[in-house]
Amino acid sequence: MDPENLKGHLISSALYIAVYESFTDYVIEEVKFFFNTGFNENGYTFSDNYEKSVLSKDKKIINASLFWLKEISAINNSDIEKFNELRIFRNKLTHELMDLLFNGLPPDFPQKFADLIDLRIRIEKWWTINVEIPTNPNLEKSEDIEEKDIITSSEMIYRLITDILSNDEKTSNFYKNEFLKYKIQKN
After folding, report:
1. Based on the domain organization, do 137 and 156 belong to the same domain?
2. What is the pLDDT of residues 118-148, one digit of tens each?
3. In Å, how far from its chain's centre is CA 105?
4. Shared-domain flag, residues 109 and 156
5. Can you tell me the distance from the alpha carbon of 120 to that of 75, in angstroms, rounded to the nearest whole number?
6. 80 and 164 in one domain?
C-alpha cells in the first residue's frame, strides 16, 4: 500500500464524516433555534411549538428537522432522499473505514462529497433569504437579494478545503503562500 494513497484516503474519509456531522448539527440547531424564545438561568428556552411542529415528525431529530424544512419549502422530497443516500454513504465510510483505506474509496466519493456540500449550502442560502434577512431588524431589507448574491460561510470554508486538497500545486499552496507573504510583510 502506498503511504500517500493511505493518507489521502484517510483524510478524505475523515473530511466527509466531519462535513456530514457538521451538516446534521447545523440543520438540527438552525431549526431548533427558530423556536428559541430567549434564555433563563437554565439556558436557552424554546417554544412548545418546537416539540409539536418538529420533534413530533420523527423519533430521529435530524429526520424531524428535515421534514420540517420540507414542510416550509426549504427542501423537497428529493433532498431528503439525497440526504438518506449521503447518510448511508457516511455509515459505509465509518463502518468499513479500514477496508476502504487499503482498497480505495468508492468511485462515487467525489460526487457524494459534492452533494453533501451542495445540500448544506442550498439550505443555508434559503435560510438566509427566508429567515435571517426578514427577521433581523439590523439588516437592510431588499427585494433584490437573490440566492446567487449570497456567499455562505460554508461556501467559503469548503472552497478553502477543496483548494487546499487540489491536485494543482499552485491552487493547493495559494493560501499558505499568501499567509507567508503577509507574515513577511508584517515583520
Report:
1. no
2. 999 999 999 998 898 888 777 666 666 777 8
3. 21
4. no
5. 11
6. no
Q: Percent of the chain scored above 90 by pLDDT?
A: 56
Cα of 160 vs its chain's centroid, Å: 14
- Residue where one domain finishes, among candidates 128, 144, 160: 144
Same domain, 36 and 101: yes
Question: 86 and 112 in contact (C-beta within 8 Å)?
Answer: yes
3-34 and 153-164 helices cross at what angle (nearest 10)? 180
Confidence of residue 156 (pLDDT cuts 50, 70, 90): confident
Distance CA 186, CA 147 (A): 37
> Which residues make beta-bridge pairs with 40?
43
By residue range, what is the domain housing residue 167?
151-187
Beta bridge partners of 46: 36
The percent of residues in the chain predicted with pLDDT above 70, rounded, is 95
Is residue 50 within 8 Å of 32, Cβ to Cβ? yes
Centre a 10 Å sphere on the Cβ of residue 17 and count the other Cβ atoms it contains: 15
Pair 74, 27 in one domain: yes
Task: Express each pLDDT in 73-105 by its tens digit.
Answer: 999 999 999 999 999 999 999 999 988 888 889
* Cell representation of residue 187: 515583520
Residue entry with cell 515583520? 187
Number of folded domains that form the chain: 2
Place of cell 503562500: 177
